[in-house]
Amino acid sequence: MAHVYRLWVLLCCALLPTLVRAQQLPARPHYTATIDSLTAALDKSAVPSGILYDRVFPLARLDQFGQTTTDTTRFEHFVQAHQELWYASYRAVTLGSATTLRARAAQHRQAGVVPIGVLHHRFNLLDTLAVQRNMFSQPDGEEGALFDVAGRAQSPCLTRKTV
To answer: Which of 96, 109, 128, 153 could cross-link with 100 by S-S, CB 3.0 to 4.6 Å?
Structure first.
């Protein structure tokens, strides 16, 4: 019986680091890394807000939010939208991570305060017609990679805001 117990403890100790690591978010989601590789040659100063929403998979649909639907949302959508902006940013978004946001909201709820949040950020999207309008080039054999076109007449980024 002692042998089974030791084997069980050894197995738990071996798996514990893997289980703990599984609870952490990756530094950059795979989707973001893929988009970053396709846009690596682009001048990031063409993204005026510093947040390129195309870098994340748009589950919160911030590109459409408030245009045809109500501008009020629920907490989980708010957190998702915040997390998408955080991952899409080339610079640090001032609110911190989604984990920090959830902790602050829980702290306020425990204190009897109703947390109300407003995401007021400008963000950019790549113009889907940028290649056709000669704002980007896409050489043959580059498998979707985008390159800047010198002397383009306008910005290849469309500006949107969350509010």
So the answer is: 96
Report helix angle 98-110 to 75-88, nearest 10. Answer: 150
36 lies in some domain: no
Cα–Cα distance, 158 to 45 (Å, whole number)? 13
pLDDT-derived band at 20 (thresholds 50, 70, 90) equals very low
Has residue 114 been placed in a domain? Answer: yes
What gap in Å lies between CA 108 and CA 105, rounded to an integer? 5
Residue that is written with structure tokens 């305060």 in the block = 113
Cα–Cα distance between 47 and 124 in angstroms, integer?
A: 6
Q: Within a domain: residue 47?
A: yes
pLDDT in tens, 103-155: 988 998 899 988 888 888 899 999 989 888 888 888 876 778 899 888 888 88
Structure-token pair, residue 50? 């510093």
* Distance (Å, whole) CA 101 – CA 138: 39
Q: Render 78-134 in DSSP notation, one character per residue.
A: HHHHHHHHHHHBSS--TT--HHHHHHHHHHHHHTT---------EEEEE-TTTTTTT
Q: Residue 84 sits in which domain range?
A: 42-161
- 107: in domain: yes
